[in-house]
Amino acid sequence: MSVDLTTSPHEYCTSVMLLLSGIVNVLYLFCAALTEHKILFLSSSYQRLTDACRALLAIMFPLKYSFTYVPILPGKLLEVLSTPTPFIIGVNSFFRSETQELVGSMTLDVIIADLDGGTVTIPECVHISLLPDPLLQQTQTALSMVLDPELEMADHAFPPSSTQPSTLKIQDKEIRAVFLWLFGQLFNGYRWCLHIIRIHPEPVIRFHKAAFLGQRALTEDDFLMKVLDGMAFAGFISERGPPYRPTDLFDDLIANQVERIRQEECSPHKVMNHIKELAEQLFKNENPYPAVAMHKVQRPAESPGHNDPKNLAMFPLLDDVTVQLFIDHAAAKLQTAPPVVKAELKGMVPSGPPLGDIVDRHGHVLANSARRLEVVRNCITYIFDNKMLEAKKLMPAVLRALKGRAARVCLTQELNQHVLQNRAVLDDQQFDYIVRMMNCTLQDCSHMDEHGIAAILLPLVTAFCRKLGAGITQFAYSCVQEHMVWTNMQFWEAMFYSDVQNHIRALYLEADGGEQSIDSRGQQESGPAAGGQELLGALELASEQSRLWPTLSKEQQSERVQKEESTVFSQAIHYANRMSYLLLPLDTSKNRLLNRSGIGDVESVSNSYVTNRYTNSIAGSMAESYDTESGFEDAESSDVANSVVRFINRFVDKVCNESGVTNEHLKALHTMIPDIVQMHIETLDAVHRESKRLPPIQKVTNSLFYITLDKSHAERRPAPPRPAPPNPLSTNPCSSVSQCHAHGRYVCPSDSTMCDSH
Predict the structure, then answer these.
(1) Distance CA 672, CA 665 (A)
(2) For the whole model, what pTM was predicted?
(3) What separation in angstroms does the CA of 352 have from each of 72, 260, 356?
(4) Tens digits of per-residue pLDDT, 43-69?
(5) Could you say which DSSP state residue 515 is in?
(6) According to CATH, what is the number of the domain 5-128?
(7) Torsional class of 15: left (φ above 0), alpha (ψ -120 to 50), beta (otherwise)
């Protein structure tokens, strides 16, 4: 197909860029733009520079480029290329030597695309993260079929006669439809990971990145991680996050065509049919009134010597009256002409189907066997029924099962049920077993907590406790502090936004006479495991409230804004307490940290199975990071309490500024935080002192057996009788025990020959 590329109009820009650079190079440039690299286009044609820059932005839809964008950079402004921020810039090849000198002085971190030569030069120091498989291969195949439909049938003995590609105008829409289809797969289910933390006066939306990556099983994908952390995606959430707004083709793709995209994965022909439908819709959206002809400047007639200045006619003088009449006539026509852009109607944005089972890279559902889950449930039941012998037998199997995500979720669900039944106060051995399982569960959670396990455990570690003395209670959070998830600021932000969303939802449900979804403790499961219906309900509620906002009086609007702000403020106080629970070590007497390592002495947090190897590791890592940022170290900066206060202050500043908390409330929070930390330190002093006085916990032991082996058979005999150790776990009301001669178990003396197995 012969195309005059030098005179192609702007509406063909994506086709032009693909024909000039090639599919592979365009995909590299696409990934580089999304991951915020510097891109420089070179060409001797200003038209090609403009087309290439416009095309790169066009295929990024629905994302919008947020950095420097200059399609044609004048020669006198070439110093702009030395900016440290990402950019998309076009420079004429006439300035190639000057450009290379500037680029060479910038440590060669600029990707150069030569449109005239069709090459893309990537410096060795630049690493471009590419699309994950199989999306990369599927996108490349779809682009090949759009540009060259004959390629698929090139080896056929009798290829069909009509396999010509579409016209440039339609081909441009098909190429953009390929990338729109690609984004539909990349961002599938993103609305199920949105947190709405304010509805009035303007919606404030935050995206739960860890939950999205965890549910998509893409936590190790470098490309998507960079895209979600980029400025373009932040603008995408800000623009498309609100639940009440006009919708477009991408919203329909995410909400209503997810299942169709899944079914098309193994069928290139179905993919192409879908892409052609999307391209047709794009064409209709950009040409809403095809009957209206656009005025075009006619090409002048060519004649010998028409370019000679002597033969050029002078431009005539314009008559003021004639010009004014022409303007009035055109204005009158505009009064009756249809609008250039159709009016957009606002409505609730559909979220689409919820994300299904988590699958790994090979498509296998990640789950544990039903038997392992049953073992976890039985062990927890034995612990709360005080059957420690049976619980100890199952403990090794439980710890192995907790390596799987399904077993960890099962554990949190079972523990939550016992909290709801007011069975959170435990004895010493129950406390040790529960804490041991919590630590095992958190040990296999990453610092991102992409599966929401730490998020679900957070209210549980502040609920389970044991009595150490009169008025002294030790909670489970003092024994699970060594996990780095507690020092991840993004984890606390996601937890805070999730709980704020739950309380904002409950606020309006209560006002409307609905039932609250928050339990008696004022808490609700957070994170991706909390269930999609709650999240969908929050977005639906926010959409309805946004629709009613213009109909409210000024007093009603002010009242709702004040209630939402007070809700955020109260949650900030709540989380200041929660963070102090998890960040302050149990032994607060060791408030001096090792400046380099941030690791305290090895000690046991209690006389139990759980050993806190890094007592001061969390506060130490925080103090070290703050000291590094400040550039100096002193005795004051190495104090645990001050480090925790600074960490919480930093958290409060971020979430409150994003949530619209007033300056008065923010100042009040900064005044409260040191007092909250100090009060918790005083409480921990008594807890640590009493925990050191606990007697050693009596281990549960089984009776021993002799196994005599000879050549013919093996005979099982009971061990010789020995004094029975005290059994604090026994539920037998008898004051003394003896051994069952058949099974070696302790039974009531009234029936010393039989045990509970008979």
Answers:
(1) 10
(2) 0.75
(3) 41, 12, 12
(4) 999 999 999 999 999 999 999 999 999
(5) P
(6) 3.40.50.11500
(7) alpha
Q: How many CA atoms lie within 13 A of 80 on its CB side?
A: 20
Block residue for tokens 């640590």: 688
- Of 519, 477, 462, 525, nearest to 499 (Cα)? 525
Vertex 443: Cα angle to 679 and 472 (nearest 5): 30
Show the DSSP H helices in 421-553 as ranges: 428-443, 453-461, 489-511, 532-548
Tell me the one-letter amino acid at 252: D
Q: Which of 363, 381, 348 is nearest to 266 (CA)?
A: 363
- What tens digit of pLDDT does each residue of 355-394 get? 754 344 334 444 457 888 899 999 999 999 999 999 999 9
For 299-329, b/e burial (b = at least 16 CB within 10 A) is eeeeeeeeeeeeeeeeeeeeeeeeeeeeeee
B/e letters for 255-289, b = 16+ CB within 10 Å, e = fewer, are eebbeebeebeeeeeebbebbbebbebbbeeeeee
One-letter amino acid for residue 424 of the chain = A
* Domain spans of the chain, in order of start: 5-128, 143-153+166-286, 359-700, 705-751
Token pair belonging to 300: 């002048």
CB 698 within 8 A of CB 728: yes
Burial of 68: CB neighbours in 10 Å, binned 0-12, 13-18, 19+: middle
Identify whether the C-beta of residue 633 lies closer than 8 Å to the C-beta of residue 557.
no
The DSSP 8-state label assigned to residue 6 in this structure reads G
Pairing label, strands 119-121, 194-198:
unpaired
pLDDT band for 509, please (50, 70, 90 cuts).
confident
In contact, 564 and 199? CB cutoff 8 Å: yes
